[in-house]
Amino acid sequence: MKNITTGFGLCALAFAVALYPVLDRFAPMSKESHAVVPVSAIPSAMFAQSAPVAPANVVLVPGNSLITKTPEEGRQLAIKMARLIIKVTQPDSAVREQLRPMYADDPEMLIAIGQTVATEFATIAAANNYWK
Questions:
Q1: Does a structural domain hold residue 33?
Q2: Mean pLDDT to the nearest integer, 41-63
Q3: Cβ distance 78 to 121 under 8 Å?
Q4: For residue 124, what are the domain limits?
Q5: Span 24-32, average pLDDT
Q6: H helices within 57-106, ranges in order?
Q7: pLDDT category, 48, cuts 50, 70, 90?
C-alpha cells in the first residue's frame, strides 16, 4: 500500500507539471505584457523586507515532528503544513476569505497549491524514510 500512496503523490505532481504548458496555451503571455523594470528602479526598502514570521500562536510543524505512522497521516500533515504557510503569509483571515474565489477558479493557482502539498509531502516522506 505504501507504494500506491507515494506513487499517487508523485503521479499528481507529474500530472501538474505536465498540465502546466497546456494551461499556458489558454492564457498566453506576450513579451509586451511583461514590463521590464531595471533593478535600480526598485525601491531599496523592497530588498530590506524580511520573510513573514509565524505568530506565536501558529505552530508550523504540528507536534514539532514530521514523523507519522502511515503515508496517509503524512499526506494529511502535508496538507496541514501547506495551509499553515498560507496562514503565516497572509495572517488576516478576512483577506484570505476575500482571496479564496480568485484561486478557487484558477487552474494555475490550484496546480500551485498541489505542488506545495507535494513538496511538503516529499519532505515528510523523506523524514519517515519513505515508511520502509
A1: no
A2: 66
A3: yes
A4: 2-27+55-131
A5: 47
A6: 71-89, 93-104
A7: low
Tell me if 49 is assigned to some domain.
no
pTM listed for this prediction: 0.56
In a domain, 32, yes or no: no
- Grid coordinates 501558529 are at which residue? 58
Domain count, the chain: 1
Closest to 52 in 3D by CA, of 92, 85, 97: 85
15 phi and psi angles, rounded to 5 deg: -60, -45
Counted residue by residue, the chain has a size of 132
Place of cell 500533515: 77
Is 38 among the domain residues? no
- Mean pLDDT (the chain, rounded): 74
- Closest by CA to 131, choosing from 11, 16, 13, 9, is 9
- Least confident window among 17-21, 53-57, 63-67: 17-21
